[in-house]
Amino acid sequence: MTVLETVANIGLCFFLFLVGLELDFNSIRRTGKKSLGIAICGITLPFVLGIATSAILRATISKGVQHGPFLVFNGVALSITAFPVLARILAELKLLTTDVGRIAMSAAAVNDVAAWILLALAIALTGTHSPLVSVWVLLCGAGFVGFAVVAIRPLLAMMARKSPDGEPVKELYICVTLSIVLAAAFVTDTIGIHALFGAFVVGIIMPKEGPFAGVLIEKIEDLVSGLFLPLYFVSSGLKTNVATISGAQSWGLLVLVIFTASFGKIVGTVALSLFFKVPLREAVALGVLMNTKGLVELIVLNIGKDRKVLNDQTFAIFVMMALFTTFITTPLVMAVYKPARKGAPYKLRTIFRKNPDTELRILACFHTTRNIPTMINIIESSRGTRKRGRLTVYAMHLMELSERSSAISMVHKARHNGLPFWNKKSDNKDQMVIAFEAYEQLSTVKIRPATAISSLNNMHEDIYACAHQKTAAMILLPFHKHQRLDGTMESLGHSFQVVNERVLRHAPCSVGILVDRGLGGTTQVSASDVSYTALVAFFGGRDDREALAYGMRLAEHPGIALTVFRFIARKGKTLRFGAQLVGITADNKKILKEEDSSQENEEDEKFLEEYKKLMSSSKENEESMLYEEKMVDSKGEIAVALKTLSKHNLFIVERMPPTLPLVESSDCAELGPIGSFLASSDFSSTASVVVIQQYDTTATQPLVVEEVDCELPESSNSMV
Questions:
Q1: Which pLDDT belongs to residue 579?
Q2: Which of 54, 118, 619, 709 is in the most buried spot, having the most CB atoms within 10 Å?
Q3: Are 394 and 466 in contact (CB under 8 A)?
């Protein structure tokens, strides 16, 4: 047990260093009166009620404990708000960038700092009956903080300055920093406060600018969260004897502690929120959120137990209170407050529109820097030359909210440039965002970059909610595979594929999936250097008309030559070549796909006539816009024809054309019968692909299309 506690406490020191490292004091200094007032009231009322509760506890189950330390420990235990746990709950409920989330995060940060100061006072009061000793401990603690600011911070700042962006951080600097953390923990433990305070102070004074802080987080967070923190939870669990809570008195005291903690936090926060004219539902949600306890609460309770301030029964009661208040936070907030994510209705949900001079809005999503060059080159190609129909791009960096403790640092980023607060200033340090802002300066395209932080399970909600909010006509998603140096396609993970599939099912506008094979190379191409050949493979149908509309926009760029290659079947036949096609939906229902109607065929012909008219409207268009037709008798001929066209730089195809799948089996069937063939490693190593699905409220979009040899059961014979 002693060895377990020692290892767990060492890990806890590094965890508190991470918490301090991720606590942004600049944002705390910028906290408005509303958040500051809510934080102070959210501490004061439960602290006072905690002192009153301590009198009852001392008269029943905590007889003989030191009066002063017990009062302060009770007050801190009831008034503390667990900042890391609150950040996680807000992120998962997608409340981070709402008014409630911003106020809660700011107030929790202030609460966190105040609670640690009060805890330092409580620890200084323990172990001695002389007030002079307690004053001496506090003065030494204040002296250590001053020494850290004056002497340690310049050393850390020097190491941070010598670790510029784009260069690896020296291992020596990391070793020195971690040694400073342990040394500071030793000093504060010797002073008589606690080893955790030294590590926490070093984290707070650590410069947050530059890559040094991020590298430190990456180096130690996995070890801390994967090994040391579980050991600390085990240690806390072994100390907690739930069996001590027995009898009417103990259970009554547990209910009293839970009621006092919740009542003080919620009522105090709600009262002041209403004073600041916060709506009632938001005020109640704030109160419930501020009542979140967690690991920080366990740390406080363990320190109290180690200092003999809390006995086994009192410790167990407070641990149960912390668990209960944390467990009920999420369901209560969801019941009380869930902001609407849908925007106002809008009409321009497709690229194809009656008036092409209207503004085109595209939501371009990307996961890593690998996606950016081709994404920017696609945007440059899409800008068109129309005077009124300018292009506006909402470039959204999709970041996974992981289970790692550094997710809190991403939370800070989301508060400045996350959903739905799109960047209005260029003073952030996100290199991905800077790349898009640099492109905006050199072009006529309006770029609005942002960062969305979500778990992969609900990332699609952020995507289509933002598309609706920004009235986008198309969502452009990166394919879940990237091309390796040998030309083969490597998957980034099944979860990214699932995100794309969900967006295809629920998107409020058209969707394009970009298969990146290095369009324009690995760098952004300037407007004068754009020289691509694009091809629209036309089979017929809604999605193909959308693909052609997008291709016609690309053709407006002076550096792009567009070819429309139409596949047609012999008279009396269709491109299905006599086979039946079924669409398989997300819930595995099979839907028989009927033949295209004569109305669909008429609309195809009408739209192709518009393209031919535009093609012959000027000499420049005749040179840059081509039209070809090919009659095919089998899907094999389609595949051969596409391979002969593989020298084009960009293919634009529809997701669900009325033809057979060109590959027998594919792990990227969401791209459709043609897209999955074009995305395969056997097709090409240079041609990028955009697979487009047109927005259609009347159709049930299947996830996969397959060929069947037999009749479907009547129960499955639904038509699409």
A1: 61
A2: 54
A3: yes
Q: What is the DSSP string of 268-282?
A: HHHHHHHHTT--HHH
Residue 145: CB atoms within 10 Å = 16
Query: What does each C-alpha distance from 156 to 135, 151, 337 come to in angstroms?
Result: 30, 9, 43
Can you state the percent helix, strand and coil of the chain, rounding each to 5?
55, 15, 30
Residue range 404-451, pLDDT digits in tens: 444 445 555 554 443 433 333 334 445 666 777 777 777 778 888 877
- Secondary structure of residue 42 in the 3-state scheme: helix
Q: What is the 3-state secondary structure (H, E, C) of 548-578?
A: HHHHHHHHCCCCEEEEEEEEEECCCCCCCCC
Task: Take residue 708 and report the two structure tokens written for it.
Answer: 């069947």
Candidates 550, 545, 538, 525; CA nearest to 474 is: 550
Rounded CA-CA distance 132/121 in Å is: 13
Give the phi and the psi of residue 403 in degrees, each rounded to 5. -85, 0
Q: Closest by alpha carbon to 700, among 718, 675, 677?
A: 718
Q: At what angle do helices 247-275 and 280-290 cross, to 10 degrees?
A: 140
Tell me the HSE value of 30 on the side-chain side, using a 13 A CA sphere: 8
Question: Which residues, other chains included, contact 53 with Cβ-Cβ below 8 Å and sequence gap of 6+?
Answer: 74, 78, 256, 257, 260
How many CB atoms are closer than 10 A to CB 352?
A: 19
Condensed to tens digits (0 to 9), the pLDDT of residues 52-74 reads: 888 898 888 888 787 778 888 88
Higher-pLDDT residue of 566, 450:
566
Contact 303, 200 (CB under 8 A): no
User: Residue 343: is its pLDDT beyond 80?
Assistant: no
CB 693 within 8 A of CB 705: no
Q: Which of 443, 464, 560, 545 is nearest to 508 (CA)?
A: 464
CB 85 within 8 A of CB 293: yes
Beta bridge partners of 561: 533
Among 403, 464, 323, CA closest to 88: 403
The pLDDT, as a whole number, for residue 341 is: 54
Taking the C-alpha atoms of residue 325 and residue 345, their distance in angstroms, rounded to an integer, is 39
Coil, strand or helix: which one is 240? coil
pLDDT confidence band for 180 (50 / 70 / 90): very high
3-state secondary structure of 680: coil
281/263 Cα distance (integer angstroms): 16
As given in the structure block, the two tokens for residue 25 are 């004091």
> Residue 666 in contact with residue 680, Cβ under 8 Å?
yes
CA angle, 544 then 549 then 555, to 5°: 120
Higher pLDDT, 700 or 435: 435
Q: HSE on the CB side for 357, CA within 13 Å? A: 3
The pLDDT tens digits for 591-613 are: 545 555 677 788 888 889 988 88
Distance CA 662, CA 684 (A): 15
Residue 71 near residue 323 (C-beta atoms within 8 A): no
CB 138 within 8 A of CB 120: yes
Identify the CA nearest to 490 among candidates 398, 396, 370.
370
Q: If residue 690 lies in a helix (H) or strand (E), which one and from where to where?
A: strand 688-693
